[in-house]
Design a protein that fits this description.
It contains 31 helices and 33 strands. By secondary structure, the chain is of the alpha+beta class.
Length: 962
């Protein structure tokens, strides 16, 4: 603070200053905590409360809960938290029972890496971070119900994460019911013989291992040997979504390789159709819905079998109408028909190249086996994103075998290429190069034939050898597509698809089907700091679920928290988990209902997404020891209702970066729990709102290294210097590593939390990113100072309001503000709400005299959701004993919202000739008559006739002379 400011404070000892703000804010935060001001009552249970509060309409408002970082919060983090707090406060003041709380997503890699570096147990550092973050959040005056806050690392919480895993493990998806059902119902079908076993033997004749393997093909949580993203540098397996487009780990930027490992998976693909369909009834941003639809990737087409000797290659295609144009095939490098000894299924790859093999097909290798092995190793070093990128150079090798095109009977060569993924469709494609861009490029690179089977409509002929690119169109006729008992010639695409699909089914070599891009969710991590799986293996390797009485299965102590990491470029490595080193924990004797036996625990842990898949449910009933959530409590807060057919949280605010991962996984878990009857809501979040990002300028020196933003000086001409050296400036993220972070603590110390809250909400629309500017914060500080002066005398500290009736101008300004702020609050337009409050406050300031009490009180209530501490203080000073938190939000009087008169512009030939003050409700006929009688208009017309009068009541009359 400057000397001038200090002198002013001496002259006005009761002025609103940072020191006074700090005192007010601390006192009211203590009051709210002591009084349980933000406690939301449940209809029953240990959190039951006032029946009149429960009877109110409910609002469940949530933030995406934070990870407790060791760096604490910077001013960009609370943007969404403040917004939901403002909205929750508004809802309380409009008569709602509001549940608003915040927990911590506390398992995660940073704490584990810190533990590896320092030897500090991850729990110790994480809990210390939570304490600091709670302090910072409390300082902001956030109105959370503290009784409901949870931490995912609390065994009492992850007991239920493990319990949910077991519900999923012990379930299967019944296509007839279109829902998950207990696995016992499937076993009953096998036992009764109503569902045959894979090899036709009676269920009773299958060994325990065989039964486990059969059920594993149905369970919604299952372990399997599958291609995974193995990151030696991190020592763990990553989900597809955690791998960058460059084939590297999102965290640490290490190379990622394809490897085959036994991992836990969630069969999310069983829910693909429902995950798609139910999006339509969610109030989410269309951009997020589109991302989920694209990720799920539903496509209708046909499954077609291509014979290869005694084997067959099955493809999925959406263009079965072009089957006659399939001149070669491509398999994913991981396809089981060429993987050979890797999966014990044998291989179709021959010992030698067939006679007449093109040199370009061999990759320079002496045998097909060498070519395939070398190419598969090369492909393993690329991510799925890299493999699907539109590369200029197409790569692949011939496998040495030919398949038979089932419609033309022609022999077509079979290649492997990395642009085909094992995780999509069947891992094999029929290539129609004349009508697919990637197939066309591949065919040109490998001297492969092309056949035009879709008549071009762009003027080119039907000889693909003369084309520069493929002709891909759905609006064309099929040609060159006759053979045997089928002809598609002359048909449109839709008719041809239907006819060939029917023919394939009749021949027993294919069928119409639906395919999805969505893959099952890889659910294992080779980490310490995560939820242990409640699974043990018997001596035959069969997985068994722990009974609920043995939950939670707590993390054991280990001497070394780090997974074994390897040379980042060494793909020929295998994971070694930290839990596997505690042999006393891994190898146990348990009685699972059939006597004490020896078992081995699962040593992987769950991914960091697990705890956030269901936390909204635990907020409802956080200390229930017997149930995930009481059904009546869940029904009250999240059950379906009018406008929310699938139920869910009323408002969920968070970043758009979680469009696919967290949101999709949470939706999947909710649907499983709904199917099994544990909850009434089939969707977790009814309304989703993505807040923007608070950005900051990043300054870098000549070496490209970030320098402290606070120490950069701006010189004339917009040039920036740090310690005498010129630096560049670029708008980007805010963060500790970028040396541009500003903490809430700094702003609160300088101005107070209410000022910070107002500034963050006033910076712009909530869903738009905006740059932070510390110099602009003072504007909101001055608003609060003017508000304070309108109610409190700065010299004496006494209230200055008067018990007189406000004049009409004050009432119009007040009720227009109330009307506008009410609409803005309901629609999360907090920046414009603040503008309207500012306008009202300025109007009252300019009157120069004391403000009528009724106006002052409503002004305080208007700003209460945005700046709750000063609102509480002024509300108390105005003589109220109750908290402003539960006071009624002002209601606008329509009589004062509508202007008494409005200005109507009268134009002749487009030029303004008069302005009239008229009633807002004036009719067009009366307005026209008034305008034509106006002396200035009569003079301007000067006796000329009138050809036309255009009236837009009440604001415009346009006269066109004859």
């Amino acid at each position: 603070m400057s000397e001038t400011t200090n002198a002013a404070e001496v002259a006005a000892p009761h002025r609103y200053t940072a020191a006074l703000a700090a005192d007010i804010e601390a006192r009211w935060q203590d009051f709210w905590e002591a009084e349980g001001t933000y406690e939301a009552p449940n209809p029953k249970g240990d959190l039951a409360g006032d029946p009149t509060a429960v009877a109110r309409p409910k609002k469940f408002i949530m933030d995406m809960f934070p990870y407790p970082s060791g760096a604490g919060l910077h001013v960009g983090h609370p943007l969404g938290f403040i917004a939901t707090d403002v909205y929750a406060r508004y809802q309380r003041m409009t008569g709602h029972n509001v549940l608003h709380t915040l927990g911590f997503d506390a398992f995660g890699l940073p704490a584990e890496q810190y533990a590896v570096q320092t030897g500090t147990h991850p729990r110790v550092s994480t809990e210390a971070n939570i304490v600091n973050m709670r302090r910072q959040l409390r300082q902001l005056g956030l109105g959370h119900d503290p009784r409901r806050s949870i931490e995912t690392i609390d065994p009492a919480y992850y007991k239920w994460t493990q319990w949910i895993f077991l519900q999923i493990f012990n379930s299967w998806y019944d296509p007839e019911a279109d829902a998950a059902r207990p696995i016992d119902t499937l076993v009953a079908q096998f036992e009764a013989g109503t569902r045959p076993t894979p090899d036709g033997r009676p269920w009773a004749e299958l060994s325990p291992i065989e039964r486990a393997n059969v059920l594993g093909e149905y369970r919604l949580a299952y372990a399997s040997d599958a291609p995974v993203n193995w990151c030696p540098g991190l020592g763990t397996v990553l989900a597809n979504e955690e791998v960058t487009a460059d084939g590297r780990s999102e965290r640490g930027n290490y190379p990622v390789f394809k490897a085959k490992l036994r991992q836990w998976n969630m069969r999310i693909t069983a829910y693909a159709d429902r995950l798609l369909k139910d999006l339509d009834q969610l109030d989410w941003p269309e951009a997020i819905k589109l991302q989920q639809r694209n990720w799920i990737g539903r496509s209708e087409g046909a499954r077609v079998d291509f014979p290869v000797g005694d084997e067959k290659i099955t493809v999925f295609t959406t263009r079965q109408d072009t089957l006659f144009g399939a001149t070669y095939m491509v398999l994913a490098p991981e396809h089981p028909l060429i993987a050979g000894a890797d999966n014990g299924t044998g291989s179709i790859v021959p010992d030698a190249w067939p006679e007449g093999t093109h040199d370009v097909w061999t990759g320079g290798h002496a045998t097909p086996a060498e070519a395939v092995a070398a190419y598969r190793k090369q492909a393993a070093s690329k991510s799925d994103v890299e493999r699907q990128a539109e590369a200029k150079e197409k790569t692949g090798v011939f496998t040495g075998v030919y398949a038979t095109n089932p419609v033309s009977g022609e022999q077509v060569p079979v290649f492997i290429a990395d642009y085909v993924l094992m995780g999509y469709g069947t891992g094999a494609i029929m290539a129609v190069p004349a009508h697919d861009t990637r197939d066309f490029a591949f065919a040109r690179a490998f001297e492969l034939p092309m056949r035009c089977v879709v008549e071009p409509s762009d003027g080119r002929d039907t000889d693909p050898s003369t084309w520069d690119d493929a002709f891909a169109s759905y609006d064309a006729k099929i040609v060159n597509s006759s053979g045997g008992t089928i002809s598609l010639d002359g048909l449109g695409v839709a008719e041809a698809k239907a006819k060939i699909t029917e023919w394939l089914a009749a021949q027993g070599i294919g069928e119409g089907t639906v395919n999805f891009r969505l893959r099952d969710w890889l659910f294992s991590r080779q980490r310490y700091w995560g939820e242990p799986f409640p699974i043990v293996y018997d001596e035959d390797g069969v997985a068994h679920a722990l009974p609920e009485s043995m939950l939670p299965l707590e993390l054991p102590e280990v001497e070394d928290y780090s997974p074994r990491t390897f040379d980042a470029d060494d793909a020929d490595t295998q994971p070694e988990t930290p839990l596997s080193r505690n042999e006393d924990w891994v190898n146990v004797e348990l009685d699972l209902g059939d006597g004490v036996k020896r078992y081995r625990r699962e040593t992987n842990t769950m991914p960091n997404w697990a705890g956030s898949c269901w936390y909204e449910m635990r907020y409802l009933d956080p200390s229930n020891p017997d149930k995930l959530v009481d059904p009546d409590v869940e029904q009250y807060w999240m059950g379906p209702r009018e406008g929310q057919p699938h139920g869910g949280v009323d408002l969920y605010v968070g970043g758009a970066e979680h469009a696919v991962l967290h949101l999709l996984y949470a939706r999947f878990w909710s649907k499983v729990l709904f199917d099994l009857g544990h909850v009434s809501s089939a969707e977790p979040f009814h309304k989703l709102y993505n807040q923007g990002m608070i950005q900051a300028y990043v300054y870098r020196d000549a070496r490209g290294i970030a320098v402290p933003a606070a120490e950069v000086e701006e010189h004339e001409g917009g040039v920036f210097y740090y310690e005498g050296g010129k630096v560049s400036r670029l708008l980007g993220k805010m963060g500790k590593s970028l040396k541009n972070a500003v903490t809430p603590d700094e702003i609160c110390a300088e101005y107070g939390a209410d000022t910070l809250r107002l500034y963050e909400m006033a910076m712009g629309p909530l869903d738009v990113s905006r740059p932070w500017d510390t110099r602009a914060v003072v504007g909101q500080y001055r608003l609060l100072q003017r508000l304070w002066r309108n109610v409190v005398d700065e010299a004496s500290g006494e209230v200055t309001v008067v018990d007189t009736e406000p004049d009409e101008a004050a009432l119009r300004a007040l009720h227009k503000a109330i009307d506008g702020v009410t609409q803005d609050m309901a629609n999360l337009r907090f920046n414009t709400a603040i503008a309207k409050v500012t306008e009202l406050n300025n109007h009252l300031t300019k009157t120069g005299g004391p403000i009528p009490r009724t106006v002052a009180e409503q002004l305080v209530l208007l700003i209460a959701p945005l700046a709750p501490h000063i609102a509480e203080e002024l509300w108390r000073k105005l003589g109220h004993t109750g908290t402003v938190v539960h006071a009624d939000f002002p209601v606008a009087d329509p009589a004062y919202v509508v202007d008494e008169t409005v200005t109507c512009v009268v134009q002749i030939k487009g030029k303004v000739k008069a302005r009239l003050e008229v009633a807002p409700s004036i009719s067009e006929a009366d307005l026209e008559a008034t305008a034509l009688a106006e002396p200035a208009v009569v003079a301007a017309l000067n006796g000329a006739g009138i050809r036309k009068v255009i009236v837009r009541a009440p604001k415009l009359v346009n006269i066109v002379p004859a």
